[in-house]
TrEMBL record:
<feature type="transmembrane region" description="Helical">
    <location>
        <begin position="20"/>
        <end position="37"/>
    </location>
</feature>
<keyword id="KW-0812">Transmembrane</keyword>
<keyword id="KW-0472">Membrane</keyword>
<dbReference type="InterPro" id="IPR006141">
    <property type="entry name" value="Intein_N"/>
</dbReference>
<keyword id="KW-1133">Transmembrane helix</keyword>
<feature type="domain" description="Hint">
    <location>
        <begin position="191"/>
        <end position="304"/>
    </location>
</feature>
<protein>
    <recommendedName>
        <fullName>Hint domain-containing protein</fullName>
    </recommendedName>
</protein>
<dbReference type="InterPro" id="IPR036844">
    <property type="entry name" value="Hint_dom_sf"/>
</dbReference>
<dbReference type="InterPro" id="IPR003587">
    <property type="entry name" value="Hint_dom_N"/>
</dbReference>
Length: 349
């Protein structure tokens, strides 16, 4: 039975691979992402090599429910595209399938998609890399062998991925000619971060709008161990454009001592605001959280120049600004993995 499912999946995949549309992610017992031209002139996806495949699958994913973005050896990136598929069979075992874009190199070229099959209760996890269309035949052969082996060893693996394939294949045809991805994304693309005008703290004590920051600039980072500031270097700057516009979330922060103080006991400080897309990570008292995961009452860290140190700020309001779209957004990569936007600690994506 397992062999028959495997053959069926492979046949369906062959049909899909022959009809890849612009910016449509194809699934082979999961999601096979095929990169398409982007707004900066990239003409075609980079090929996935067998070495790349093994590097991606060697990454230890601790909590896929929380990990939407991961860097591997500074060269490879996993970027989760959508909510997981969830399956509840009559055997009582919950099964989930997560999909991650596989990006490679400084240009972050998309080379395929990683599918992670997980059974949360047992902690079991199976990772397969679905190559992009430009991958070498030996990579496809390796991938098919992985499907066969895992399908024989894990009940439910092939059937859940075959279901996903069927669903995404149907979506592909429903969207034919529309140029839209078949993936049901959570809140738009995962490449977006801060809008223009967000102020980045520089190491010399000044601040600069994020769109003016360049690789090599010295900026302020956060040392979580000592909760103090430190200098770091910007290693890369990404700018992303979307003609249809990008939704932004705003957080409004106040010092925790003011939130809890009695009336008349203090002179109120001006609230701090920070805006970003829902996927960008910030540093909270509980650790790393994406903007969309942060709730009222969460504690963030803001640098207070008058005190020459960081203060705890409480989120007093969270405002989804889907009606106020921006077309271009920016992200920094730093040696330290953090920097300050409007004085508040944020993390590299």
């Amino acid at each position: 039975m397992c062999t028959e499912i495997h053959k069926l999946v492979y046949v369906i995949f062959d049909k899909i691979r022959e009809s890849v549309l612009l910016r449509i992610c194809v699934l082979a017992v999961g999601l096979a992402a095929v990169a398409a031209p982007d707004s900066f002139g990239q003409e075609e996806a980079a090929p996935l090599t067998l070495e790349d495949y093994k590097k991606f699958t060697s990454y230890k994913m601790e909590k896929p429910e929380e990990e939407t973005y991961a860097k591997i050896e500074g060269t490879y990136i996993l970027d989760r595209e959508a909510k997981p598929y969830v399956f509840n069979y009559s055997d009582g075992i919950e099964r989930k399938i997560y999909f991650y874009k596989m990006l490679k190199g400084a240009a972050r070229e998309e080379v395929g998609t990683m599918a992670i099959y997980a059974t949360p209760k047992s902690g079991k996890m199976i990772k397969v890399c679905i190559p992009g269309a430009k991958a070498d035949k030996k990579v496809w052969d390796y991938y098919i062998d992985e499907l066969k082996l895992n399908g024989e060893q894990e009940k439910g693996f092939l059937s859940t991925l075959a279901f996903v394939l069927s669903r995404e294949y149907s979506r592909e045809h429903a969207n034919a000619g529309k140029g839209t991805s078949t993936v049901a994304k959570e809140d738009g693309d995962y490449d977006f971060c801060f809008p223009a005008g967000a102020l980045v703290a520089l190491a010399d004590g000044s601040a600069r709008p994020i769109e003016q920051v360049k690789a090599g600039d010295k900026v302020v980072a956060f040392d979580a161990a000592s909760q103090s500031r430190r200098g770091t270097t910007v290693t890369a700057v990404q700018a992303h454009y979307k003609e249809a516009g990008i939704g932004i979330t705003k957080l409004v922060l106040l010092p925790t001592e003011e939130v809890y103080a009695s009336a008349g006991a203090w002179a109120p400080a001006a609230p701090i605001e920070i805006e970003a897309t829902g996927n960008h990570p910030l540093y909270t008292k509980e650790g790393r959280k994406e903007m969309r995961q942060i709730a009222e009452g969460d504690i963030l860290y803001h640098f207070d120049s008058s005190r020459h140190g960081f203060r705890e700020y409480k989120v007093v309001a969270k405002i989804e600004q889907d009606g106020q779209l921006v077309k271009r957004v920016y992200n920094l990569e730093t040696e330290a993995g953090s920097y300050l936007v409007n004085g508040t600690v944020v993390l590299d994506k």
